[in-house]
């Protein structure tokens, strides 16, 4: 598949400042949902770039600084666990995406936005693409930025609370993670509306 297919169609129309947008962290029990918007130059080359979920952690960590260095502009947005509990994860993800786009808009005037799966109401023309992180180079780059950014947050949290294993599961509800919160209770930053967390709160373990 040609990862440039959507961008090329826009280039042919004279549109060059294209932001690719993706999110990570809708499923974890703890921490923010993180989004990124990335604008790449026409001559950008990074062999092997695709949806961040299909890349090894080592590959993502290697691609991340390269993308940041060569991007025309990028922005990161997030919604806190409190915001996720207030609005629900779907709405919080859309808000976080708009925040990432707003960060890019401070640097360049976006002409078009390509978004992974999530339809957004924007003043800029946009297109929502199902599995866009595997179909658009701009979205793929954004997916790496978002994933590595959030992973680094979880690694820092792991340094403070190693007993929970955040550096390994990144906050997702793995068996090890669920056992840890049953044993040690909840620290600040858990999403209280998520099932396993709500159950612990209801049982008074937190």
Topology, please?
Elements: H1 5-11, E1 18-24, E2 33-39, H2 57-70, E3 73-79, H3 81-87, H4 89-105, E4 112-116, E5 126-129, H5 137-160, H6 166-169, H7 175-184, H8 195-203
Parallel strand pairs: 1-4, 4-5
Antiparallel strand pairs: 1-2, 2-3
Helix pairs in contact: 2-5, 3-4
Q: Which strands sit side by side, in order, in the main sheet? A: 3-2-1-4-5
What distance separates the N and C termini? 48 Å
Mean pLDDT: 97
Number of helices, where a helix is a run of at least 4 consecutive DSSP H or I residues: 8
Q: From the helix content, strand content and strand pairing, which structural class follows? A: alpha/beta
> Any idea of the CATH class?
Alpha Beta
How would you describe this protein?
The protein has helices at residues 5-11, 57-70, 81-87, 89-105, 137-160, 166-169, 175-184, 195-203, and strands at 18-24, 33-39, 73-79, 112-116, 126-129. The protein is an alpha/beta fold. It has a single domain (5-153), classed as Nucleotidyltransferase, domain 5. The protein has a five-stranded mixed beta sheet with strand order 3-2-1-4-5. The longest helix is centred in the C-terminal third of the chain and has 24 residues, at 137-160. The N and C termini lie far apart (48 Å). The mean pLDDT is 97.
């Amino acid at each position: 598949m040609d990862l440039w297919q959507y961008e090329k169609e826009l280039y042919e129309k004279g549109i060059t400042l294209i932001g690719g947008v993706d999110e990570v962290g809708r499923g974890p029990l703890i921490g923010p949902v993180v989004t990124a918007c990335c604008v790449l130059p026409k001559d950008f080359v990074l062999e092997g770039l695709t949806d961040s979920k299909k890349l090894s952690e080592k590959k993502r960590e290697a691609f991340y600084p390269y993308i940041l260095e060569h991007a025309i502009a990028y922005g990161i947005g997030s919604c806190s666990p409190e915001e996720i509990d207030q609005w629900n994860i779907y709405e919080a993800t859309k808000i976080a995406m708009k925040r990432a786009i707003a960060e890019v808009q401070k640097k360049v005037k976006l002409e078009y936005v390509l978004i992974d799966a999530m339809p957004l109401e924007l003043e800029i023309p946009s297109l929502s693409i199902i599995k866009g992180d595997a179909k658009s180079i701009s979205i793929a780059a954004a997916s790496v930025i978002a994933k590595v950014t959030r992973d680094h947050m979880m690694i820092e949290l792991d340094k403070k609370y190693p007993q929970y294993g955040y550096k390994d599961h990144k906050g997702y509800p793995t068996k090890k993670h669920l056992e840890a919160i049953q044993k040690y209770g909840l620290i600040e930053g858990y999403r209280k509306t998520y099932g396993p967390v709500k159950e612990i709160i209801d049982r008074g373990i937190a």
